[in-house]
Amino acid sequence: MDVFPAIYSTLSPQALIEGVLTEYELGTINQCLFWHRGLSDIYLIETKHKAYILKISHHHWRSQSDIQFELEFLDFLDQHNLPIASPLKTKSEQLCVTINAVEGDRYAALFPYAPGEIPQGDLNLEQSRIMGQALGKLHQTSLQFKNETPRQCLNLDYLLDDSLKTIKPYLRNHHQDQPYLFAVIEEIKQQLTCLDKTAPLWSVCWGDPHSGNVHFTTDNQITLFDFDQCGYGWRVFDLAKFLQVSLSAGIDRKVRDSFFKGYEDVQQLTDAEVNSLQALTQVAHIWTWAISIKASAVHNWARIDDFYVNRRLNHLKRLSSQDWQLF
């Protein structure tokens, strides 16, 4: 073989300057730095006057259709004046650039660097309220989004059944816990039969709203970014995802409540949505568990040990308890 196969490669910053960033009207590029490895690779681009973020998908994680939907949704939100870090278009008016990496095609999208920074010490009450308001406006606006580009819906087949298929092989040393996980998933499905898949309850969701995916300026102007997990789903799932991340991080109850107040300043949740929050927070936990396994299997297999599995199972049990919002 001419080139040894790879499941993941780190792309050369210099090659990105010469072979990808020339597709954009950026002027002279001072530096391109490999900034962060997550579900996508993030590069910091600096020119004389501006900074940008180059986001490059992983071959095993997102298809071209997935990426195109995400970028078209962000472009739509930007056109409707939502505070979004929206993708820049290439000289040929494309939203992304295809990269023929050694492992297969990957897709690069360029964004202006969001003004401000991630909240230091996490959200305060006012920032949490503003973020809740922004999410409410996002859901309202997304009802107008018309798009036929295929993208996986955030339905229970995907969030629960597909996640269980990913998790199950790693429970081989936890035979006693397998029936528990199966039973929890069946119970969740029963609890969520009350939710309709119709507007306005069903719309395009952000998929990953939390304090690590927003920047605030010193005067509390917000910018939302990282829509890698977006898709059509129940709007209340976004609020449950916020809860799942916040509870895991130990965010104060008052901060969480402020987020919900901000959201309901824009639009009210139905009783059925409020009653589904605990079940959907469990769904979010199970989904992120599966996502973590898929990423670790590629980048860091050693993470998926018994301690990892026990921690995830114990957290799910807490989320299933009567006092789930108190820890």
The count of strands amounts to: 9
Lateral strand order in the biggest sheet: 1-2-3-5-4
Percent of residues in beta strands: 15-25%
Structural class: alpha+beta
| Fraction of helical residues | 40-55%
Number of helices: 10
Report the oligomer. Answer: single chain
| Radius of gyration based on Cα positions | 20 Å
Span between termini = 54 Å
Return the average pLDDT rounded to an integer. 96
Characterize the main sheet. 5 strands, antiparallel
Low-confidence region ranges: none
Question: Element order, helices and strands?
Answer: HEEEHEEHHHEEEEHHHHH
Shape: globular
Written description of the protein model:
With 327 residues, the chain is an alpha+beta fold. The protein has helices at 13-19, 64-79, 125-142, 156-167, 178-191, 235-249, 253-266, 271-275, 277-299, 306-319, and strands at residues 29-37, 40-47, 51-57, 97-101, 104-112, 202-205, 214-216, 222-224, 231-234. The model has no long low-confidence stretch (mean pLDDT 96).
Secondary structure: elements and pairs:
Layout: H1 13-19, E1 29-37, E2 40-47, E3 51-57, H2 64-79, E4 97-101, E5 104-112, H3 125-142, H4 156-167, H5 178-191, E6 202-205, E7 214-216, E8 222-224, E9 231-234, H6 235-249, H7 253-266, H8 271-275, H9 277-299, H10 306-319
Antiparallel strand pairs: 1-2, 2-3, 3-5, 4-5, 6-9, 7-8
Helix pairs in contact: 3-7, 4-9, 5-9, 6-9, 9-10
